[in-house]
Amino acid sequence: MAGTILIVDDEKDMLTLLKRIITEGTDHEVRTFSSPLAALEWLKNNPVELVFTDLKMPGIDGIQFLKEVKRAKPRTCIIILTAYATIETAVEAIKMGAYEYISKPFKRERILLTINKVMKWEEMVRENLALRRALAEKGDYLPLVGATPIMKDLFDRIRQVAPTTATVLITGATGTGKELVARAIHQNSLRKEKRFIAINCATLPDQIMESELFGHVKGAFTGAWRDKKGLVEEADGGTLFLDEIGDMGQGLQSKLLRLLQEGEYRPVGATVSKYADVRIIAATNHDLGEDIRKKRFREDLYYRLNVVRFELPPLAARKEDIPLLAHHFLRKYARIYQKDVLDISPLAVQILVSHDFPGNIRELENCIERSVIFCRNMTLKAEDLLLDNKQETPFPDLSEGISDLSFKKAREVMLQRFHRQYLHILLRESDGNITRAADIAGIKRQYLHRLMKQSGLSGEDFRHK
Ligand SMILES: Nc1ncnc2c1ncn2[C@@H]1O[C@H](COP(=O)(O)OP(=O)(O)OP(=O)(O)O)[C@@H](O)[C@H]1O
Ligand SMILES: [Mg+2]
Question: Distance from the CA of 270 to the center of ligand 1, in angstroms?
Fold first, then answer.
């Protein structure tokens, strides 16, 4: 899809050259500006997908410009063009949320490749936003993020099933979103004004569970001083979500079957039945087929529950959704913790995509939450990612992106990365204790301090982990 690309540089020749490369090599529209302020003005009133900007310009400098763009349009991708600016400034720009920096002089392919990468990513984000907007307009907004075919299909089916009263069985591994899907079904149903009540069948012993679900009458058992309504009655007209149904005891299974078949149940100790109109949604991460074979789960109940089945895929089966989910959680936790973290660096996204999340979306969400809490920049970078504590902190490849740098700059960049990675490992090893770290490294404390300062690291951070 064609988008708009802004080029900001005070050198006219550079504007012409870049514009030619882009218009010849892509079908994107290009606007050029020699004044960053004029560019900013234009950007505020027009959609822009990508901005190429020089670092040193009269008026406001590139870093200031970048901040302003991020403030006005946080999602805009910014590529820094750097000639005589030092690499540190470019690195600083990345920390502030720039997507990438390209040093001048550059190769045509480098520019085209970068545009291609950014636009592909943009398209995915846009697609998801459009989908969510369309749903919101139809009044059936789903709080679920996902753009892969498997998820789009799931969303369609949720929308179809939600307004009916059909019983739904949701299966899937831990953290795949079973409860969220159940809530989405309720919110998009005609019952949404009534209650959604969730109960976990694995946490309570059967007798207590029975009185929780169906209520009891006074004197039904020791401690039953008065009549108590059950959740089925509380959820009358609404939805009852039975989580981990695979762990429900046999006795209760037959009572639930009766509720499903006749809409009828009996409070503990009562002599007459009650009726309730509840929609049941059940979830499990068990293989119920196996449970049925082993006679742990009633087959007839299974068929009653399994009127509509949603099988939620593990995150590993839809890794393409990881970038979207990561950004979604980034916005969520940046808001909750009031942090100015606006973006995730492409490398960090890449690391997330290649990481295994056995705890699925919940694990990814926890990872982003943790990382946002500790992140000290506007962009969450590879080294800010706090993946599962048991796993190694991921680092960028030392030599990534150095192919078009001069020897001097390449050495500078690699050395900087080396410092950061070495210090990370060292400080983690020594729990952030500087004296111990200096000891292990065989260098003076003062020198270690200086290196840490240059890499933007503090001992504090490592004492928290
Ligand atoms: N498609 C999604 N988009 C956004 N957030 C999601 C999505 N799916 C799940 N989540 C989030 O991931 C977390 C885990 O989801 P949820 O509790 O629904 O999983 P679950 O399958 O019920 O897990 P468990 O089996 O461990 O109970 C929640 O915080 C939920 O909001
Ligand atoms: Mg759950």
Answer: 38
Ligand 1 mean position, distance from CA 144 (Å)? 9
Question: Per-residue confidence at 128, pLDDT binned at 50, 70, 90?
Answer: low
**Which CATH number applies to 140-311?**
3.40.50.300
Indicate which residue's Cα is closest to atom 18 of ligand 1.
177
Residue 392 has pLDDT above 60, yes or no: no
CA of 181 to the centre of ligand 1 (A): 8
Q: What is the CATH number of domain 319-381?
A: 1.10.8.60
Output the CA torsion 49→52→56→59 (10° steps): -40
Find out whether the beta carbon of 175 lies less than 6 Å from any atom of ligand 1: yes
Kindly state the tokens that stand for 187: 């919110």
Quick check: CB of 359 below 6 Å from ligand 1? no
Query: Tens digits of per-residue pLDDT, 285-317?
Result: 988 999 999 999 999 999 889 889 999 999 999
User: Taking residues 250-258, what's their average pLDDT?
Assistant: 92
Q: How far apart are CA 331 and CA 343, in angstroms?
A: 9
Pocket test of ligand 1: the residue of 361, 363, 367, 370 to mutate, having most ligand atoms within 8 Å of its CB, is: 361
* Domain range list for the chain: 4-120, 140-311, 319-381, 395-465
Between 134 and 196, the more confident residue is 196
Task: Check pocket membership of 62 for ligand 1, CB cut-off 6 A.
Answer: no
Mean pLDDT of the chain: 87
Q: What are the residues whose beta carbon lies below 5 Å from ligand 2 (ion)?
A: 179
pTM confidence score: 0.62
User: Is residue 313 within 6 Å of ligand 1 at its C-beta?
Assistant: no
Measure CA 9 to chain center: 35
Task: Please provide the CATH number assigned to the domain covering 4-120.
Answer: 3.40.50.2300
Question: Binning pLDDT at 50, 70 and 90, where does residue 87 land?
Answer: low
Q: Ligand 1 within 6 A of 363 CB?
A: no
User: Do 168 and 158 touch, CB atoms closer than 8 A?
Assistant: no
Cβ–ligand 1 distance for 145 under 6 Å, the answer yes
Is residue 390's pLDDT more than 60? no
What are the Cα distances from residue 143, in Å, to 154, 188, 302?
A: 13, 11, 28
Taking only the tens place, the pLDDT of each residue in 155-168 is: 989 988 888 888 99
Contact 257, 302 (CB under 8 A): no
Topology agreement, domain 140-311 and domain 319-381: no
CB of 144 sitting under 6 A from ligand 1: yes
DSSP for 370-423, please give it.
Answer: HHHHH--SSEE-GGG----TTSPPP---TTTT-TTS-HHHHHHHHHHHHHHHHH
